Records
---
Amino acid sequence: MRNIIFLEVGMSGKLCERVALVTGASSGIGRATALALAREGARVALVARRGELLQAVAAEAEALGAESLVLPTDVIRREEVERAVAQTVAQWGQVDILVAAAGAYIRAPVLQMTVADVERSMAINFYGVLHAVLAVLPHMAARRSGHIVLISSADGKKGIPPDGPYVAAKFAVAGLGDILRQELRPLGIAVTTVFPGRVDTPMIAHLRVPWISAKIPPETVARAILRALRRRPPELILPFQVQLFVYVSALFPSLGDWFTRVFHLEGWEEGE
Ligand SMILES: NC(=O)c1ccc[n+]([C@@H]2O[C@H](COP(=O)([O-])OP(=O)(O)OC[C@H]3O[C@@H](n4cnc5c(N)ncnc54)[C@H](OP(=O)(O)O)[C@@H]3O)[C@@H](O)[C@H]2O)c1
């Protein structure tokens, strides 16, 4: 079955008629991925809170010839996510692809960090992802096919101060992806966890970053995700220098810490 899906996607070079549900579709990586999917002929269910922005993305998707569904949803609320998935299945009968991109950058130095900071981060960055995964899984399992793409962060491989609340949630997403991938493989469901470095989106518009971790365009991440939908890799770490940094830090944590300090990978908030 997995081979058949690969051929179907690979031969045409298209994701024609595939049903993709994208959370965080109103902005940044989610928006760019939804549009890249639309360009490939997928039908896109657009999930985020800001309905007017989703409408604009839907208009762009439709201009690219794709069908779309606008589903204003707060992913923190499980019942809203379940409703969005049910609406997608009611409209198109299936969900082939989930891209869980909704997230928020919540930083706090550990001495000032509160439990509430971490809860807020977990609510959106972890539970927001979990709600979407659990809502699509029964549909994918019933059809014994599907691809789940979780957007973690390079911060989900190597923590950069003062990102404590965000790092905790992104590591949790990475762990979830790791276990999902192994347990869902026999069911024909692929799982790819994505670990981008800095990406030029509204989320970090206020943050200046050092040249070594320069922001990449969200479209670059979207293109990598589309390639991953064809090749089904377990993980995607990008760009290349971030991949290198992550691997070196995994082998030599102190060297990773040193590199983080010397190159000011935390960046500078506006006004600093
Ligand atoms: N930018 C980076 O440098 C970077 C690096 C690595 C990983 N990431 C990750 O990439 C993902 C996308 O971020 P981005 O950079 O594209 O940021 P962005 O442009 O700010 O987009 C964030 C998206 O998440 C949605 N969202 C936030 N809270 C939500 C909620 N409660 N319910 C539903 N949707 C919600 C937002 O939509 P609404 O506000 O309309 O709800 C928006 O569509 C995030 O998971 C982020 O952690 C980003």
Note: DSSP finds nine helices and nine strands in the chain.
---
Amino acid sequence: MTITVYGDSISGNCLKVKFVADLLGKPIRWIETSVVRKETRTPAFLALNPAGQVPLVILEDGRPLAQSNAIMLYLAEGSRLIPADAVDRALMFQWLFWEQYSHETAIAVLRFHKAYLKKPESEIDPALKPKCERVLTIMNDHLATRAYFVADALSLADIALVAYTRFSHEAGLDLRQWPHVQGWVVRIEKDLGLKTALPNL
Ligand SMILES: N[C@@H](CCC(=O)N[C@@H](CS)C(=O)NCC(=O)O)C(=O)O
């Protein structure tokens, strides 16, 4: 049976689910659910996910599952996207947790405020931009000597991290300042069969 994905196509968290499903050849039924139009806050949606957030999937047996990284882990179980070695797998989790705690809360939030809520600079938390810059510097330093985040191969760590990094320009960040990150974004997009989202490439 096909799983159903409630997702918003502007959301990196939701696109992570589509990237993994497409890469592994798993069919999904996508139900477009707009965050901006508050379709995640209707009584019908809240009955499925009380957190009022996408992505949300309805699994083959009817159980709902939320949280983008949990959904990716479910879809990728037993695949090459999860390292077999225990330490490499733990390192993948390290980056997945960091992505949710430090990366998504900076780049995705700044992008949403600027590109979708169209907030003037004066209404945006001034701490967000330096936080994004620190995140990109950590990634750039890591990628200076590596093509992928973990174990020299594409893993869920790359997919989670690329989801919003490829839209950094929409948060007012120019990836030319972080050249290893820029090169890695293009590499991962290619691995995922995506046209680059980066401007001027
Ligand atoms: N940690 C969650 C974050 C989910 C999330 O923030 N979803 C946003 C879209 S990217 C949303 O549904 N926002 C609607 C709302 O909070 O009302 C995940 O990774 O799935």
Note: The mean pLDDT is 97.
